[in-house]
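Open question from group meeting: does this chain pack into something compact, or does most of it stay loose? Before anyone orders reagents, we agreed to write out a predicted structure and look at it together. Recording both the input and the output here so the notebook holds the full record.
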Amino acid sequence: MRKYFVKDNDGNLSWFDASHSGLEDAIEFAKKNKTDVKSKPWLGEVVDVQAMGNTETVWSYSVNPAADLFKEEVFELITALQKNS
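Structure tokens returned:
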């Protein structure tokens, strides 16, 4: 299982469910903090994020709204394809 996470301006991590609504919440939080949304395998309560395995950036903060829209569209396409497989 994977979860989304965002590092806030104070360096704290906020975790979000790996669902469409979880991603929307993570993106909103990331926009407020001008940072990225990342995904990691969820192993329960985690103290050290680097010890969890592979990290993927699923949404990246950008000052270019067109780039953000493209990334969101690509993620939605990938999510739809995964659901159908």
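Observations to bring back to the group:
The two ends are 17 Å apart (CA to CA).
The chain is about 40% helix and 25% strand.
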